[in-house]
TrEMBL record:
NCBIfam families for this protein: fpg, PRK01103.1
Cofactor binding, note field: Binds 1 zinc ion per subunit.
Name the record gives this protein: Formamidopyrimidine-DNA glycosylase
Gene name for this UniProt entry: mutM
Subunit structure and binding partners: Monomer.
Taxonomic source organism: Pseudoxanthomonas putridarboris
PROSITE patterns named among the record's database cross-references: FPG_CAT, ZF_FPG_1, ZF_FPG_2
Length: 275
DNA sequence: AGCGACTCCTGTTTGC
DNA sequence: TGCAAACAGGAGTCGC
């Protein structure tokens, strides 16, 4: 499931292939994903040159002079750059096609999303899409640190894991990285956010940064394959300490990892190492 | 304002 | 073995 590192990996893989290219056509095989696809996407994108591919939270922004296409991968979405001759397969919902050069076939940016939790939206030039308003800081920015978390969390009674996954608090930390960060910082996911000390929030912010940075670096190894039709990488899965390891021995102390649902999310932690 | 519950969807896993 | 029910998951939205 794409979290921030996978979205950033996608952005880095995508950018060199589509930045500077002119869009020839847009094919929508569905009128909607999570939400209806706004008419500007098919109407205004063709003919535009892609100026940049940016990321904010888990959203990708494809910038043109007419406006920006806003892409979210949901939990099962993926983007690939392929030769336009590759046949579409199940759940290939959107193609953004580029003209080929002399003798070379054109390519398409193809959006596949089986569960359709993803979205394709439109941000007019000079505006900020409503979904991007009110988002918290980027976790890898200097705006995000222990003091920030400590100050914001005072009085909050929700579990610290729920707090950390709130996109208004900090963006890009989903279920996997919340579990991993809390394990690394030695904080119980059940603890009320407002009851975590400043020192422990410093450790937590550091853990978030370290884990995300590492995961992005690991994803980077797959960038060269971005043009191939192979499936998405599972680059980080074998390195997970907590996520998906309920009942297994704690990597630190060997006691069985606990599992429960916190805030409607499967959560794994060590009752001994995380307090 | 904060927070829990609900919702979307479909591939995979679990349970009978 | 086969089928159906349960589950997973990002994050917006609703209601208390």
């Amino acid at each position: 499931m794409p979290e921030l590192p996978e979205v950033e990996t996608t952005r880095r893989g995508l950018a060199p292939h589509i930045e500077g290219r002119r869009i020839q056509s847009v094919t929508l095989r569905r009128p909607d994903l999570r939400w209806p696809i706004p008419p500007e996407v098919a109407r205004d994108l063709p003919g535009q040159r892609i100026e940049a591919v940016r990321r904010r939270a888990k959203y990708l922004l494809v910038d043109t002079a007419a406006g920006s296409a806003l892409l979210h991968l949901g939990m099962s979405g993926s983007l690939r750059v392929l030769p336009a001759t590759i046949p579409v397969s199940t759940h290939d919902h959107v193609d953004i096609a580029f003209a080929g050069s002399a003798g070379k076939p054109g390519r398409v940016l193809r959006f596949n999303d089986p569960r359709r939790f993803g979205s394709l939206l439109w941000q007019p030039l000079g505006e900020v899409h409503p979904l991007l308003r009110g988002l918290g800081p980027e976790p890898l920015s200097d705006d995000f640190d222990g003091d920030y978390l400590f100050d914001l969390s005072r009085g909050r009674r929700a579990p610290v894991k729920t707090f950390l996954m709130d996109q208004a608090v900090v963006v890009g930390v989903g279920n996997i990285y919340a579990a991993e960060s809390l394990f690394r910082a030695g904080i119980s996911p059940l603890r009320a956010a407002g009851k975590v000390s400043r020192e422990r929030y410093a450790a937590l912010a550091g853990a978030v940064k370290a884990i995300l940075t590492h995961a992005i670096a690991r994803g980077g190894t797959t960038l060269r394959d971005f043009l191939s039709p192979d499936g998405a990488p599972g680059y980080f899965e074998q390195e997970l300490s907590a996520y998906g390891r309920g009942g297994e021995p704690c990597p630190r102390c060997g006691r069985p990892m606990k599992q429960a649902s916190i805030g409607q999310r499967a959560t794994v932690w060590c009752g001994h190492c995380q307090r």
